[in-house]
């Protein structure tokens, strides 16, 4: 291990960190351009075969960037997309970014350091950085934006230069070091461990924008919100946000074990989709409506009305049902399509019932700051089901690829063991029972 990383682990002062040299190489989980075609024609695109852990060159730091010694990171589904080179190879995105020239050219490498979550310690700041300093404990907002583009100042996610850090850029979080823009840095909640703090930014931030932000569905008290995959990374945070906002959470899950967990997470009503009757001889559209009728009937029998909001990131498999189930005048909010991007639905159920579809992507800096504040105040809690070492990141990503996880899967980078990083013991004590209870419930159902 290099001396700077060791100093971070040992709790060195900012002055000591500043005096340690930045290494010329660092350990990172990465994919390789030469492997981009390795899964062509292969049914099981096993990410353990494409994710490598080893030394990569340390890039130069731009004036508006920060070098973070990463204590912990987490797996997101975009890690799986990166490692399967689908729906497109991320090396095409890196090449496009590299053509901008200047410091952007660094991103176009024959390797890509992946990962869109991180917590850690600032060890260097660029000449133009003002609001953070060496020694700060931070979390990373995954939205990589161009602050010189006018649209960014209206909404960071609207700028054409907006990218997903660690997916559409290089130098991501599954590594001992990460390069991020200063506009991605937020203070780490002091009562959380490194792995807890690294586990929420992408998923909780995305769910916050989808449900709470004025750019999303804007939940209000009493709203019934139907959440697909209510025990997954996105869905589990969505449940917390709905309950915090005075809403009624309806979880859709795939097994009786997940039904029990969804209830423990806070769902008021849970439906096991495995129990729904599906006629495979029907067309996709007709099958979706048939499933929607069953779901709608169950929700009305339990709650007396249809959901005003449907939270969908599953995509092709669920989207037509989401449009059908949403109440008259209701909203379907979507941020992804893990089962396919080509959505097919009966438009009559949308236009004749005055429903809306909101496309939501990522989270802007202001929204992420608001979301992080909720963690800081103990109003949102991390939801980790398992923790892996950086050397085992392929196994961690495989777990997510196979959807064999619940909550979030964390990865320790420089942190030598779980449970480190808490700097406010009093505040930790206030939420310790809640976190331990939630963690125990998640771990039981993850086994």
UniProtKB/TrEMBL annotation:
Alphabetized, the UniProt keywords read: NADP, Oxidoreductase
Superkingdom assignment: Bacteria
Q: Which InterPro entries match?
A: ADH-like_C, ADH-like_N, Crot_CoA_red, ER, GroES-like_sf, NAD(P)-bd_dom_sf, Zinc-ADH_QOR/CCCR
Q: Which Pfam families match?
A: ADH_N, ADH_zinc_N
Domain Enoyl reductase (ER) residue range list:
46-411
Name any one GO molecular function.
crotonyl-CoA reductase activity
Q: Which Gene3D superfamilies match?
A: Medium-chain alcohol dehydrogenases, catalytic domain
EC numbers on record? 1.3.1.85
Q: What is this protein called?
A: Crotonyl-CoA carboxylase/reductase
Source species, please? Rhodococcus qingshengii
Instruction: Identify the stretch annotated as signal peptide in this record.
Output: none
Give the top-level enzyme category. Answer: oxidoreductase
